[in-house]
Amino acid sequence: MVFNLRTFSFSSADEDDPTPPRNFSLKELRDATNRFSHGNIVGGGDFGAVYRGRLADGSLVAVKRAVTIDQERKEFFEREMQVASSVSLHPNVLNLRGFCRAKRELLLVYPLMIHNSLASNLGERRDRSTGPLDWTTRKRIALGAARGLAHLHNQGNIRIMHRHICPYSILLNAQFEAVIAGFCAAVIMHERNVQEGTTKNRVEDSVASDSGSQAYNCYDYVYDDNFIYGVGGFIAPEYRYTGKCTLKIDVFAFGRTLLELVSGQGTGDLFLLRFGKHIILEGRTDGGTIKNELKTLIDPELQGKYPEEEAEGLVQLALLCTHDDPSVRPEMSQVIRMLETQLLGQDPSSRSSRSLSEHDSTPYYSFPPSPSSKAAP
Ligand SMILES: Nc1ncnc2c1ncn2[C@@H]1O[C@H](COP(=O)(O)OP(=O)(O)OP(=O)(O)O)[C@@H](O)[C@H]1O
Fold it and tell me: Where are the residues of the annotated region Disordered (predicted)?
């Protein structure tokens, strides 16, 4: 028996066999969603409303529906389709189950994630039937989201820049595992749409450590766009001001998401001003200060039930990921190792195979020191 994330059901099918997305008829999706009834809406974004539905085979789905078909919606649709055809199956990445190109609408069909988004489980929780996320669940979410993002960033020759990581694009399945979704702004990095990075040392490091299988460091590849995607405080400064981005913009957004995960609040710039930037600017990044501030910053819904050391470590990692200088931010494979060591107490020599791709050659990093030394004055 295999739990299939595509159909969100148990089946005897081989989970590594990626079924190509199916072409649904509009009628099938109308029937599944009770004619797109308002009561079935589970969320929405720039593409359109998202409806809960049940297909004729009994499986639960989320149907993303655009009823205005403009250039932007067409691009969003194509991007989600492209990601679906490029990304290999991973438990922490949402897989496209199907699509529908009707005359006046565009629809995307995904397996339904029962617990909706991370955003809807933090702060003003929409669903009060489940309790607040406990610390252990938050740790699993942090690690799962990191693994999903690392998978997008490095799976063989394909690197996918998500560009829209935030608590709304991290969904939670029945076991509260993080599943990355929302690929409408994603970019598939390849030689045609990137310029080679300029940080020579890092390229050399990468080549030297990788016995020739990877001739460049994908985190140095730059994608130039004339449109800035993303949500307010989750947009990395270098991207916001230049329109140029590398995979490090996703690391920045991941760091911001971690801050929301521990504080339980829509932190935006406020959190960093209060905790991150404020401390960095004041030169007060020593562990003692973080410890002192921690209690006032951690989500009160946790009712103090969290190991302080772990919370402190998570905040330090978040601050490192959100550093203004992208070269200081770690790569996602390094983030996974820091999380595994800090949160699971895992020996790096017995690292989980789930967190490593074949091409992963990054040396082990211990949990980061405070980013103060590299911070702007
Ligand atoms: N598979 C799913 N299962 C459950 N809820 C979902 C699913 N997909 C989307 N949602 C809900 O819809 C919201 C918007 O989804 P998504 O981010 O994919 O849409 P979008 O149009 O790409 O959004 P954005 O405007 O942020 O780009 C999510 O935050 C979540 O609440």
Answer: 343-377
